[in-house]
Amino acid sequence: MGFNEAYQSVKQLVNDFKENEKIYLSVNYSEADVRNDFINKFFIALGWDVRHEQQKNPYEQEVRVEKPVLVAKAQKRADYTFYLAPNFRDVKFFIEAKKPAHSLENRDFFFQTVRYGWNANTPIAVLTDFEEFIILDCRFKPEINEILNYKIKSFNYNDYADEEKFKEIYFLFSHQSIAEGSIEKYADSLPKPKGKKLKAVKAEAQTIDESFLEELDEIRTQLAKSFKKNNTHLTSEELTEATQRTIDRLVFIKFLEDKLIEPHHYVSTFTNPPSLPPVTKGRAGEGSTAWEKFIRASIILDAKYNGVVFKKSLVDTKNIIEPDDKTFSQICEKLSHENTPYNFDAIPIHILGSIYERFLGKVVNATDKRVTIDEKPEVRKAGGVYYTPQYIVNYIVDNTIGKLIADKTPKEIAKMRFADIACGSGSFLITVYERLLDYHKRWYLEHTEQAKKDGCILYEGAYRLSLQQKKDILTNNIYGVDLDHQAVEVTQLSLYLKLLEDETTATANDTWVMFKEKLLPNLNKNIVNGNSLIGTDILNPTLFSANIDLTPTPLLTKERGTRGEVDELRLKPMDFEKTFPDVMKQGGFDAIVGNPPYGAELSEFEKSFLNNSYKIRSTDTAALFIDKANKLVVKTGYFSYIIPKPFLFADSWNVIRNKYLSIIETVIDCGKVWKHVKLEQIIIVAKKNNFFNEYNSGHREKEDLVVDQKISKEVSQNFGMILSDISKDEINLGLKIKLKGLSLGDVCEIKRGLDIQDTLTNNNIYKKMYRSKSIGRFELKEPKEGISKSDFIKLKSTLNYMEQSKVVIQNIVAHVMNPTDHIILMAAIDEEGILGLGSVGNIFFKDGNLNKYFIAALLNSKLFSWYAYRFIYGKAIRTMRFDQHHLNKLSLPPLKIEELFKHHSYMSIINISKLLSSSKKQLQQTKTESDKSYLERKCEQLDKEIDALVYQLYGLTEEEIKIVEGKT
User: Which of 65, 116, 122, 315 is most buried when burial is the number of CB atoms within 10 A of its CB?
Assistant: First the structure.
């Protein structure tokens, strides 16, 4: 319906309600009645298929309507959940319905509704009984004492008949408006929250993952200290395991409760005194302490669920004394359904994965006297844990596994194997599993006869996957490896949660009771703790090479081990052929996906081993994972990773780039995915033994990954890199400028300055020294540091190359591009032979006839910066070096040297370059604003004249000049 039609329809509902208001407000008029008579019709008028008259597929319905289900007097799911096709995973908003006899200004009602929205990361939700319509703010963690302040706006049913007031509702909640991003725009316009406590909330709302991570961190700290107090003998590793296993169980039990898979509120019984009576008299829930109740419930649930969560571990043994009753009781009380703001029915599984990924970045460290929670060394070095955003995961999975399973039958898919060999907390594997489940659901809806034969369950008129089928998909198709044992356990936990996500008490009990099967499969052969890069041959290094330096490092020898003994327990070497024999006998995995670790710290011993094993002239772990993935996939298998952007252009990635360019299908330039990570990222999608002449090139627009063109691989090879996020016109211009004769590297040589850590800034300076920041375009700023006479004498023999007239350039290139000037290269003339530090590049001439002012002008031109940014540095924004490699990639004009000397522009550029250099020097020394203004204009004009002459030398057209200057 359009607005006018919707308005008329809702006005009629208003009249109907008004005519029988007393009946509708009576206690006998139920919630089910008001939903059927008014609320359903209201949202149908707003364009939603509430009754599923068009959207018959139960897995692809934009409105999920829940039947009222009460568990312990608490409803677990929102009455209406709204999605937007084709994305039926991410909720747009919730509606919670009540009977009109109740006043909606109720803290419990508000808390319940906000809890749904906040847990699902939706900014607003609606509480309504048709008589009232209240919009609630779900951006903030629900606080019961402040919850009435979460109201944004409310309407009485009479307001619906007011055209202007109804417009507010329609243009926010109608199907068309939601599709146009109305909720996101509305959320952006919302003011900061009100209320005493909420005023203290940060300006930016705290998301569910941030909040729950804080709570888990707090629980871990409390548990660790309590365990240590009662068990002084526990090591840091044992404390980490004990706290992790306890938290995993509590999370899993809460999930079972909130998903209605378990009909009981177990966690509420783990308190002293319990807020609920024991679940099963004489067994679960009984005990003298909160911990005893927890352990007894774990035993009961293990019998039903199995899996890594409840298997017997350190916390179940007599070697550990339970945490003190008060601490554990308070933890469970805070997590109980009566008190917690968290609802695991609404939290997407991948969000739980993101929480755990960061949670696993810390470990418990214990001394005799204290317990601390510290970041792992590798996490501290990296500046934190950076969870892969879901839109990245979705793209990688959809363009690998999604393509491979398209149009296949469940029987064919059952033979396929998909892996993440650096799986972390399992974010990629969760999504792979989700895609497999979704595909099977759709396939069986279209093939009902086969659905019946394969064991699908007929539920509410449609066939659904049985729990056994979902278990089979998980164990047949999903594989993972990680070096971190905790990560492996959390991956298993996350996959178990995904497996049980759509189950109910009835379906779970049917499987358990009728089929006598535990509900969770054993994943220990699927998700493995090991080293994907290092095989067991490292344990006998003489077998792989006689040339490797076997001198051990402290990290690689056991604390009291013999010289040369490899620390097997730390390295965890693993052979895929032995770990996954059935998979490797079939040729390997059909696809490998993930976000491999970048630049992990390796000992010299490990580097030697890896260099010998992989032979790609790089021990960057991301590069090694690319090579490993290609070895492990079947002949036509896919692998896809998000990796550092230098893969596209950096010298250190040359071998791996050239090795795999031919099989790359897609490159997406993602820019800076993580705010606090210096590197930018790209996605590569490659298909083994499939050689493409072109590859798809794309870029990121917020959370959309857009493929916008195909690029010739031959063209990329011409530039010695992989081009991305670049237009056809730019490529054509780049090819025009690119080397056709001599490069700057043919006529010039560049050397870095001195690598000196300590310099002088006082009166003892004997020789001044430049830094990179001392160099501007055609100007040198007075250096403020230098070296002593004694140091100069020591270094004298190595300084000759600098003590002469030369061109100097910033060797540390900061790629901050201004679209109107495109300047990243900065060079000047040093006539005095001043020394430079390592951040300065010193350029000398192999051919003495070439003029240094001409070279400085080329390096300072807009054309060279434009070209270098795109065709040398791959449009990266981080700072990088400018060395001989880069000189080799910059071209002289397409003329012979003798022709260049005779060209009218050559001498003009030299003369203007000299004038510009002297004007810049004069500008540094001027004191009046008038003179400064005049000289700035003069320099700007001379700059433009040089650019114009350079354009002429390279034969650029007016349209091409516009491309360089960003005016197209």
Answer: 116
